[in-house]
Amino acid sequence: MRQAVWLLLAAILAVAPPAAMVPAAEASVGLTQITGKPGEALVTVYYPSTSEAKELKRGPFAFQMAWDGAAARGNRRLIVISHGSGGSPWVHANLAQTLVADGFVVAMPAHRGDNYGDPGTPGPESWKIRPLEISHAIDAVSQDARFQQLLTLDKIGMYGMSAGGHTALTLAGGRWSPAGLTRHCEAHIAEDFAACVGLATQLRGNFLDGPKMTLALWVIRSRFKDATWQTHTDPRIAAIVAAVPYAADFDMASLATPRVPLALVTARGDKWLVPRFHSDAVLAGCASCERLADFATGGHGALLSPHPPGLTGLVGDLLNDPPGFDRAETAGVDRKVSAFFRKLLLP
User: Measuring CA to CA, which of 81, 114, 224, 230 is 20 to 30 A from 168?
Assistant: First the structure.
């Protein structure tokens, strides 16, 4: 039960010297993985490259990229991406490619205990260490010889989706506690059930719903009593996008005036993190925050691109696109995210 309650996305997926600056139209997307700090997982890096792109297969996906290709000079700015629980770097590859086309280097740490290959400790246990892992990923990229001369680290962008959005809100100056999650679920478990129990089970409108909620609350109360505020900031991060973030456990007053520009991407059809308890609640309390994009018909999985194929059962119900949703909207949002970072991070 410990793992099942918080295993949100685990079902999704089973050196050259710096080159001269290359025009975006002529550059390919380089892809590499570098070692993080001891005990932490790999950091996947997408970047402008002068090497020839070839087909690369990762999980169920195929990309045209240059594996370990020669790094080219882009716009000298780094974007760090925090994946959702149980996620991988591949489900944000299209966003990364869009950012690389605009000259950014993109780094994605695999969050320890909460990624597709290591799903053992998702939820608040992971949320406590994720922001520090973002800082460590910045350190790892900055210390890699291939990127040291290509990056200026005084203004970094950060993007996070779902549990990664929770990480983004923390880095924006928000404070949260495990006990805050318990309070939310005690008050709203029927309306926001998936946010409280993840993939463990679902409500079906029958006589079992009551016992399911009772058991879920017993587990949540027993595990998440800690009222200690959790915070972490990194002064190098200068702009943040939180996409369909888990937010109900935050002290919303701490997000009223974020320490850096904060934009949100929301989805009306999100059945996993009901907007009024999460993304909309942040926007309601933050006058300076920007709603960068809102999927009128898209669900939680609208932010996964490429979308994992063949999802069935509860995970499919929560992540598959609703009928009629146009995936071109996701590509459009990727361009808005890149434009947001260009506006705030480039000279």
Answer: 224
Superfamily assignment of 2-345 in CATH? Alpha/Beta hydrolase fold, catalytic domain (3.40.50.1820)
Q: Judging by beta carbons within 10 Å of its beta carbon (0-12, 13-18, 19+), is residue 205 exposed, middle or buried? A: exposed
Q: For residue 3, is pLDDT > 80?
A: no
What pTM does this model have?
0.92
- For residues 314 and 11, the model is more confident at 314
pLDDT at 42 over 50: yes
